[in-house]
């Protein structure tokens, strides 16, 4: 990526374990605080998804967490 390589054109890509994708952590005592809820809301927002899925963005070829690829 820094070398200008396109991740989507790789011969083989590593498959990451679901537990390694998009980990957002806060202390358990902070889980219900507004800042923690704001982070979850931002990551699950349509705007965040649009940035991640934009083919002009390097992130579009990255693996996505199950909650992001599941159909409702």
From TrEMBL:
<keyword id="KW-0449">Lipoprotein</keyword>
<dbReference type="Pfam" id="PF03180">
    <property type="entry name" value="Lipoprotein_9"/>
</dbReference>
<dbReference type="InterPro" id="IPR004872">
    <property type="entry name" value="Lipoprotein_NlpA"/>
</dbReference>
<protein>
    <submittedName>
        <fullName>Methionine ABC transporter ATPase</fullName>
    </submittedName>
</protein>
<comment type="similarity">
    <text>Belongs to the NlpA lipoprotein family.</text>
</comment>
<keyword id="KW-0472">Membrane</keyword>
<keyword id="KW-0732">Signal</keyword>
<keyword id="KW-0564">Palmitate</keyword>
<dbReference type="GO" id="GO:0016020">
    <property type="term" value="C:membrane"/>
</dbReference>
